[in-house]
Amino acid sequence: MGKKGVKRSYTFGPAGGGYEDPVQERERQSQSSSFTSTEVQDGAPVLSILQPRPVVLQGMQVRRVPLEMPEFDLDHESLQESHENTLMIEEKAKPKQYYRFWVLPGKWLRVRYDRLALLALLDRNRRVGENVFSVMLASLVAFLGFLLLLQGFFRDIWVFQFCLVIASCQYSLLKSVQPDAASPMHGHNWIIVYSRPVYFCLCCAMIWIFDLSGRAGSLQPFSLYGVTFFSAHFLLCVRDMLIVFALCFPVIFLFGLLPQVNTFVMCLLEQIDMHIFGGTATTSPLSSLFSLIRSIVVAALLYGFCLGAIIAPWGDAHVPVLFSVFCGLLLALSYHLSRQSSDPTILWSLVRFKLFPELENRTPEEPPVEIKDPLPEKLRNSVSEILHSDLVMCLLMAVITFAISASTVFIALQPALSFVLYILAGVIGFITHYLLPQLRKQLPWFCLAHPVLRSREYSQFEVRDAAQLMWFEKLYAWLQCVEKYFIYPAVVLNSLTTEARTVGQNHKELDIYSRALFISVAGMKLLRSSFCTPSQQYVTLCFTALFFHCDYPHFSETFLIDYYFMSIVFSKMWDLLYKLRFVLTYIAPWQITWGSAFHAFAQPFAVPHSAVLFVQAVFSAIFSTPLNPVLGSAVFVTSYTRPVKFWERDYNTKRVDHSNTRLATHLDRNPGADDNNLNSIFYEHLTRSLQHSLCGDLLLGRWGNYSTGDCFILASDYLNALVHIIEIGNGLVTFQLRGLEFRGTYCQQREVEAITEGVEEDEGCCCCEPGHLPHMLSFNAAFGQRWLAWEVAATKYVLEGYSISDNNAASMLQVFDLRKILITYYVKSIIYYVSRSPKLEEWLTNEAIQEALRPCLGPNYVDSDPTFNLNIDEDYDHRASGITPSSFSMVYFDWIQYCNSRRQTPVTCERDSPLVNLCFGLCILGRRALGTASHSMSASLEPFLYGLHALFKGDFRITSPRDEWVFADMDLLNRVVAPGVRMSLKLHQDHFTSPDEYEDPMVLYDAITANEEKMLISHEGDPVWRSAILANMPSLLALRHIMDDGSDEYKIIMLNKRFLSFRVIKVNRECVRGLWAGQQQELVFLRNRNPERGSIQNAKQALRNMINSSCDQPIGYPIYVSPLTTSYAGGHSQLRSVWGGPVSPHNIYTWLISSWDRLQKGCGAGCNSGGNIEDSDCGGGSTSISTNPAIHTTQSTPASSLPQPHITTVQPSMGTDNPAGPTQSWPHHPQPLPLALLSQSEGRMEASLLSSLQRTSSIQGLLGQQLSSSQLSFSSSMVPPPLPAPERFCPATLLENSGHRVGQRSGLHYESHFGKWSFSGRKGFNGPAAVEMEGVPVQTIRTQPPPPVPLQEASLTHDPLGATQALDPSLLASGDAPTPKEESTELPLLDHLR
């Protein structure tokens, strides 16, 4: 194409001459509008113009030879071309480029390739180290290949095949296959480059080693279950298998049967640690290496004690002391290892925090207003709690085990003791892990229609409180405790003693060194497995005992050897069972769903290959590889081995908000405004809730049976998340949550309906409907439930979350009257924030501000901006065609006066005062900013909503010169106008429920104050929004602009923290792994980019769409993928109430001191008044005397406890060794909110300060009372009475301001030195009354610090009619404390109170 869009073609001869193609010339002439037949002279040879025109090629230019045809009258363009006789080639050739390849110093060769051509030929190495490593690896491949060829392992055609393998391994270092079949990511994967040569070197090295060992015969062979290992024949057979494996490299890498190198290392180390040493799953290659090294170090330590114990003489009724020491150390160290996570990052964070605290506090990249994430500190506290507890428990367990082992009980009671332990383990395991979970399932045995053991929330339509602790949950927890800490340690120690005694008495015949190593490793593996996953141990133990004692006793080696190897075999058998269930469920012909034509084609061809499929299933179970359907069809292939966490990349969702986008970007385009990005925060909050409660709920059996790698789906009204359990330890669980879209696809909705609908009403039996027995499933329902890859584990699982309600803003602001109400509330909110600001006096005395507002004091001043409209402005003066100060004062002067009267120090408030003038200027400025953002089209709905949303997110654009005075202090915008527009939206919401209530200034003022204290109103892109949700803010409100799928609408989002009910669906883990592997192969290797591909169509029997949607992006499309999160059992309050708190040195010391004080006081009370210890004063004990039932702490957090100021209070936190009361964790006491969140008003900070001071005074009042129960009976909730004025703790000004505000909302008033106060009603222990006692004057008694006592919540006393009573201050001064009448047992004190 030329510069004018004309096509030209040329033909040249060998000498450089040529001509222009006449066909192209004809097309050009026919398309040219300037050359027509009328422009040619009569009689001219018209056809000659279509003849070839001579041209010549000179260099890179085409020069046209002039035609001897002067009679042609061509157009201006043709004349100009003819005059220049030069035509540049339009598609110019690129300049020749070359790279210098240095052969020798000063000698180089030209490589004539451009960048793209060179990248197509060779891979690019960015660092010198990669080049060096590649050269060394290629040289090693050549050397090992030459070594094997020299040994004569290959003959005939296999020599060529082996040379082909060598060449492919070396060439992959120059140009790798991208994408590779085993690559887990799109694009260039630099790690996969080294896969072939590394595997080739390992294989060749093992071939050489096995050949050398087999020919030398230096290894001592041994026989196990009839198979001789490490004999010459065995080693040579392994060598031959490796030779065949090396020759099959092209086929192996074509199908991707070997992972990339780092994945292979991680899988290998993880499998060794899990199956040999009894470790848990790992989260990264570093954690797998750390876990394995840790296990090896412990095994090496135990090996020395075990070897010394075996060598020691063994008598018929004597156990060597060294062996008892070995047993004690083995149990203690195994217990400690089972309590530690495989990820060392949390432990290292704790060490760094303790040793180098300055590194933790130094975060210069974060703004100072951001709150600190509470999760890292909570994790450090949990790990610290575990370490302190293990310090005591390991020593205690070692001593007890030493004593039991030294007592020769495992020798004297043989063989009856062994059978008793086996039977006891089998019975308790059957009851705990089979009977109780089946009775708690939604469909027990897929026959009953309802669970037999139901939770209290099962019959509730809407859950309003945390889950109640049931008796069968306590039974389940205690049975697990007995099983883990008593039965299985006894079984293992019994087996170890028998094994060591046999080896010690026959050490001359056996290899004691290898037996000692095996005893150490086997004991550690079996104990760690029983501590971490006891749910599968009883099956393995019972099978081992029955198979080797009853069926085939001649195959048995020793029970320890049998039990050890059967535990490995059974782990693989469980995988095989899950794989076969997945395959049979997926390809069942009566429920197969064909997502594409290929599925229908592949279904018949998969039937004859069932034997091959079974062989693949066995192979994949042995090597822990997924069995994935090809393109989602009925044809299955084996993929490469993967770790338990499956995904090799650490993909985590990063929320897009104002903290990580440019200002211009989020003001103009707002990239984070899509629903998926905004809704991801709810899954992040759900992850935090699960981090707090998941481990405890699993130990209470609320999710049924579970094991490493299991997958669960949590389904609620709008939340659908897949929870992948990765690591299971003793008191810890590591998981990952993957949140799906709120508004999913059609296929996702069909599968959500399948898991949420009930089958209890099904009455079908084959083709008829005869019904079913009462509380039983019909035949069709029972049959269908057995052919699913998932099952319902629980229907009412309770978690703390947020209920989301959205209202269309267009419908709420459709008419002018509704918009006028919003503008009115907007103006009143600005006035409220002006009067509440502590900088009001400064603004009133600011010369620049007063000078700019002085024209507004004129009698004829009118602001006639086009923004103002009679339809939406209440104070619009239609006679002046604008807003005047008089019209403004006529509408809002009463409100200004009332707000000023509520100030601590009121200012002058007249109609022409500076306060009214400032309010007038700010209200005019705020409405003009709204009009500017609405493009001065506020009368129309869409521009009005656009401007309202712009102001709501903080986009104030001051364009009028009359408003530039606001820049004298930016707090006028940040602390007055910005929160005013947000508060007006909330008041407008409330107007629909109570339209006339806000006519009263007192009610409106109190409503704004209450919203400030208990609600966050912010834009969702503001980082404060995320911080508030993670800090458990009770209520939040936002205005969301939705622009997707052609929709452009505004919605008011309202969040309220409450308890949510979820359905817990347990999915076959091999189904999840297989579908994930299939999607990865299809999208990465086969490059199928069809968004409607058949492999993601809905399949209800396997939940194919939901599982495939949860893959990492861009393979799947989850809206949130959490990092690997560890949940600890110590943070679960209900589990602590069952098992008790941690046994740490600090807790033991505190318990001893408190017990001694309680004993001392009890003895004194008994000697003085004849009472007993139980009636002693609970101030020095560890429990409080109360007739109220025990109340379990929940995750709910009072509203006013969130933005807590920095005041020293006595407040226990989660993870500390403080036994004085229930352990309180992140959901109970969230972190203080940032200053940006508190900047909406100064009132929220004042109210929070008041609440904290009240709690402080209540606690100090309780600590200052030293009474016995003979004088006073304590209740579970108490508050100290007001104290005299000289003993006040906080400034009187703050108390007066807060008291005046609270007093307006109460029904019963109390007259104090500072004003009238109102008292709220008594509420529960954990209710909001604990922090909402704003009516109590905050005072404290300055006393000496008392000894540690349990903290108790406080409330007011009540009379029998329920009215709140004020207590006499003289009671506290005289040493007595107030006592509720209905709980008092001392008549003299009761009479005194009356």
Care to give the gist of this entry?
The chain has 1394 residues and is α+β, with helices and mostly antiparallel strands. The protein is built from 45 helices and 24 strands.
Q: How would you characterize this protein structure?
A:
The chain is an alpha+beta fold. 47% of the residues lie in helices and 10% in strands. The protein contains 45 helices and 24 strands. The strands form seven sheets. Strands 12, 13, 14, 15, 16, 17, 18, 19 and 20 form a nine-stranded mixed sheet that branches. Strands 1-2-3-4-5 form a five-stranded antiparallel sheet. It has a two-stranded antiparallel sheet with strand order 6-7. Strand 6 and strand 7 (107-111) form a beta hairpin. Helix 9 (261-275) packs parallel to helix 10 and helix 31 (885-901) crosses helix 32. The protein is globular. The relative contact order is 0.07. It is a multi-pass membrane protein. Belongs to the pecanex family. Pfam families: Pecanex_C (PF05041).
